[in-house]
């Protein structure tokens, strides 16, 4: 291997969430690869007509896995006309996926001061970075309460829903839920399908008219709430404007803020 910027890893598991549309991959992890929850890696494949060559196609994917897990996990949507994701979706156990040695990204919890509530708002596969945080016990020690809002079109796209709903039963988190049974609030939202106890609406619409606060049982107080946004650019643009009007802003010049944002394409 002539390029030392990446390592060759092997697919160990494939999970289709919505066939032909949403999937997850687990791959081996180089012992020297270290990252913070919320960061992403550049993963690579060789050109389609040269499957045994060195990788030339690269895309960024947030780690779903926690920083201390022995393998890396990635969650992806299939872009039908895309050059990368349809081929990544065809990978099977034993196939190779290349991972750059250096992680990237600043959607990390050290951007916030500890304490208060952490709201993790995502659309689509923007949920990826949050899953890494939720799997890391350090996140639960850092904040008093954690809110996860996942906006999708159809209920079948609510990947990882069972895992999130079972977090209160995780032995590693038992002490936190014993102290505060409402430590976690998970709110799945679909725009094209009615879900029990949830309005059929866009996440930004719920944010704009105050229904999100009612559903979560908490006021959107910039002195107490820290918010992360991850998802499609349209959602982020609208949500940022709404939150700015409520006093939310990213940190600057070493001063911690109460808002962190990352596009997920």
TrEMBL record:
Organism: Bordetella trematum
Pfam families: NAD_binding_1
Record protein name field: ferredoxin--NADP(+) reductase
SUPFAM superfamilies, A to Z: Ferredoxin reductase-like, C-terminal NADP-linked domain, Riboflavin synthase domain-like
CDD domains: FNR1
Catalyzed chemical reaction(s): 2 reduced [2Fe-2S]-[ferredoxin] + NADP(+) + H(+) = 2 oxidized [2Fe-2S]-[ferredoxin] + NADPH
EC code: 1.18.1.2
Chain's gene name: fpr_1
Superkingdom of the organism of origin: Bacteria
One MF annotation (Gene Ontology) recorded for this entry: ferredoxin-NADP+ reductase activity
